[in-house]
């Protein structure tokens, strides 16, 4: 019987790993200025060291630390001033015992100097002599050559999603053009005889399409490119033509609706009709979202998500994002998790991994996690939720007062 035997979440992920073994996105070269959110397709190593010369981290005087030993507010050390270092210019001076040179923050440290005394602890006496009122240790107030980045050091690993700081790091390390994975192309289809475009007037019984909007937005949030967004009737031929076209244009096709086993639920048959290996999952032990379909046609992943807007979003997060991460060989988990204390007992569905929507409230420096309830057709549930908790299939719900992990939405 269909949908009576379903796979667990772990089994489903294992099967996805198996069916998508060796499939990944093509790569392209881009300028680092365009690389935010893109995923590095190779390990990158620094082409230069940073800083390229020892620099002062304060406004003050470059000295030999040992000249300042014993100096204090009541007993200063007197040094001969050897002029200034200018910003952006090489330091021409050489520090020998008994000498000091003025260096601004970021300026080059003259040869021989091994510490900086901040200007606050120095008095300029006659233009040639300075009184130093504080002892400094070697290395104080200095950033050594190569201290930030060593030449040849790994700066970005393959599979890293690039953040603003990574782009700054690449610029500093002398890398301006990088190989990244192409953005995954996602095609979103809503199927249902009842569905109409949300701008249209409806007749009784018709339903305005929500899923192409939420699912496309979720794809964009994962840095994917949305290459199609359409509504199709529950008609085998029509859906087959649309999914066939979508497969040709994309890496991931997401069909919502028609995933169950009703007479008009044709998504699984359509996927199977379009090529090998076809559907390898129909039914997952999750709540919501049990009738989930996952297949592969050629190198394209094809998903049949439950039509209910909440279920479609949850299944997208759990399985479509999993495949998007896999295709891009993304290293880090994308989920942002926080810890809190559950404010009420939560029931689970034995044998199913349950995703419970929650709201968060900060109380006494702690996050209080409150379950919120609604039908899986109610999109408002998702807008009210700050996140969700996962209750494992063998876990008997959660007790009030228990600590839980919340995955933020
Ligand atoms: N005999 C069984 N029936 C059902 C089972 C089951 O295990 N055995 N599972 C139920 C569950 S759970 C779900 S979820 C649904 C999923 O069914 P479908 O994927 O076939 O979804 P539809 O019937 O097409 O739609 C469900 C519901 O959602 C509305 N919908 C669909 N698409 C959209 C859209 N793009 N925007 C807004 N709303 C949409 C649709 O009008 C329906 O009300 O199956 C159960 N049945
Ligand atoms: O599992 Mo269905 O997704 O609850 O409505």
From TrEMBL:
GO terms for molecular function: metal ion binding; molybdopterin molybdotransferase activity. Keywords: Magnesium, Metal-binding, Molybdenum, Molybdenum cofactor biosynthesis, Transferase. Its cofactor is Mg(2+). Pathway: Cofactor biosynthesis; molybdopterin biosynthesis. PROSITE patterns: MOCF_BIOSYNTHESIS_2. The keyword Chaperone does not apply. InterPro entries: MoaB/Mog-like_dom_sf (IPR036425), MoaB/Mog_dom (IPR001453), MoCF_biosynth_CS (IPR008284), MoeA-like (IPR038987), MoeA_C_domain_IV (IPR005111), MoeA_C_domain_IV_sf (IPR036688), MoeA_linker/N (IPR005110), MoeA_linker/N_sf (IPR036135). Residues 187-326 form the MoaB/Mog domain. GO terms for cellular component: cytosol. Its EC number is 2.10.1.1. It catalyses: adenylyl-molybdopterin + molybdate = Mo-molybdopterin + AMP + H(+). GO terms for biological process: Mo-molybdopterin cofactor biosynthetic process. Pfam families: MoCF_biosynth, MoeA_C, MoeA_N. Belongs to the MoeA family. May be involved in the biosynthesis of molybdopterin. This is Molybdopterin molybdenumtransferase. It comes from Geosporobacter subterraneus DSM 17957.
């Amino acid at each position: 019987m269909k949908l009576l035997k379903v796979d667990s979440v772990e089994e489903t992920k294992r099967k996805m790993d198996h069916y998508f073994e060796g499939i990944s996105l093509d790569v392209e070269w881009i300028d680092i200025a365009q690389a935010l959110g893109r995923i590095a397709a190779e390990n990158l190593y620094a082409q230069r060291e940073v800083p390229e010369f020892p620099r002062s981290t304060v406004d003050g005087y470059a000295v030999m630390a040992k000249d300042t030993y014993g100096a204090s507010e009541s007993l200063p050390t007197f040094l001969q001033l050897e002029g200034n270092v200018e910003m952006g210019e090489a330091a021409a001076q050489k520090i020998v015992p008994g000498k000091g040179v003025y260096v601004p923050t970021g300026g080059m440290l003259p040869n021989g100097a091994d510490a900086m005394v901040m200007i606050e602890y120095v008095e300029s006496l006659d233009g040639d002599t300075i009184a130093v009122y504080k002892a400094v240790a070697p290395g104080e107030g200095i950033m050594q050559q190569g201290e930030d980045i060593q030449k040849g050091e790994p700066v970005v690993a393959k599979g890293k999603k690039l953040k603003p700081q990574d782009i700054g790091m690449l610029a500093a390390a002398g890398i301006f053009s990088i190989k990244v994975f192409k953005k995954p192309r996602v095609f979103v289809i809503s199927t249902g005889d009842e569905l109409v475009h949300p701008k249209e007037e409806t007749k009784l019984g018709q339903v305005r399409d929500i899923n192409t909007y939420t699912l496309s937005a979720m794809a964009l949030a994962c840095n994917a490119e949305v290459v199609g967004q359409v509504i199709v009737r529950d008609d085998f031929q029509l859906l087959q033509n649309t999914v066939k076209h979508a497969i040709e244009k994309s890496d991931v096709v997401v069909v919502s609706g028609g995933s169950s086993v009703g007479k008009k639920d044709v998504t699984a048959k359509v996927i199977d009709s379009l090529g090998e290996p076809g559907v390898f999952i129909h039914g997952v032990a999750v709540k919501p979202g049990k009738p989930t379909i996952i297949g592969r046609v050629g190198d394209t992943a094809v998903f049949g998500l439950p039509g209910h807007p909440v279920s479609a979003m949850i299944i997208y997060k759990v399985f479509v994002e999993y495949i998007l991460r896999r295709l891009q060989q993304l290293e880090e988990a994308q989920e942002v998790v926080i810890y809190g204390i559950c404010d009420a007992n939560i029931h689970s569905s034995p044998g199913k991994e349950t995703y419970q929507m929650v709201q968060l409230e900060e109380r006494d420096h702690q996050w209080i996690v409150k379950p919120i309830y609604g039908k899986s057709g109610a999109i408002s549930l998702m807008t009210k939720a700050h996140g969700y908790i996962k209750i494992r299939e063998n876990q008997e719900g959660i007790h009030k007062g228990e600590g839980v992990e919340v995955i933020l939405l």
